[in-house]
Fold this protein.
Amino acid sequence: MSVREFDVLDQELPGVRIVSIRGELDLTHAADARSALELAASEPERALVIDLTGCDFLDSTGVSAIVAASRSARGAGSGVTVASTEGSEVRRILDLTGISQGLPTFDGVDAAARAAVGSS
């Protein structure tokens, strides 16, 4: 059994911060993801895009990190959107848990960023 790579990338653009999660967002990596998401979410007046287009797997700890970050961002007055590939396993989990109904979810990062900036 091989260990899957995991990475969190943070990109700042005018009015928006994109946190891209690559690999498996599970118990092993949830703390790292949560820290990055919470830091990004704490910035007032900067929308947050949670980019899961490169995420291969999402468990309940990952879902919890996403929910916590969205609450923090909204508390700071910022818009929050999610980018997740339509038809992927991660998107299915977002749909099953209701995240895609509670947070605007888009197929690509560009659309998610435009929507996030417009909602903050």
